[in-house]
Amino acid sequence: MNAIYQQLLSKWSTLAPDECVTTNHNYKFKVRILPSVEKRNSLNAWRLVTSDNIAWRLANDQSTVLVQLNFVLLTIMHYCAIKHSNISFTFAPEGTTAVICNGPQSQPQAHPAIAALDAYIQLLEF
Questions:
Q1: In terms of pLDDT, which residue wins out, 57 or 100?
Q2: 0.85 surpassed by pTM
Q3: DSSP H or E stretch at residue 125
Q4: Given 12, 73, 78, 115, which residue has the most CB atoms within 10 angstroms?
């Protein structure tokens, strides 16, 4: 799961560098904070998101990783709303699948945020 999440974040930073950027570490990324997603004093605020040990952190109830994943999920949902695109989720034993506007569909992923990011990357690539 770490590798998939890292690949998706890397693609996001390449396709939309104003939304997500890479840092000097290969598993750390900065995602722009939108005022409608999270209150910040600065309009240029970024949140650090890591892809390192995501599966382990989720299995061991690391609350910081849940905050990061929820932030990514809300950010993607906000970008979809801006583009008047709906996003829906299907939950199955294999994982969560996200679909944007009956078009780009993610592969089954371990967390809804990763599924949403997968589908959003496909939307950006289109």
A1: 100
A2: yes
A3: helix 112-125
A4: 115
Going by C-beta distance under 8 Å and a sequence separation of 6 or more, which residues neighbour residue 115?
A: 89, 95, 96, 97, 98, 106, 107, 108, 109
Residue 94 CA to residue 20 CA, distance in Å, equals: 28
Structure tokens at 8: 């998706």
Buried/exposed 21-54: b ≥16 CB within 10 Å, e otherwise: bbeeeebebbbbbbeebeeeeeeeeebebbbeeb
Of 69, 74, 7, the C-alpha closest to 36 is 74
How do residues 1-11 score in pLDDT, each as one tens digit? 788 999 999 99
Distance CA 54, CA 47 (A): 16
Contacts of 14 (CB under 8 A, 6+ apart): none
Q: 61: left (phi > 0), else alpha (psi -120 to 50), else beta?
A: left
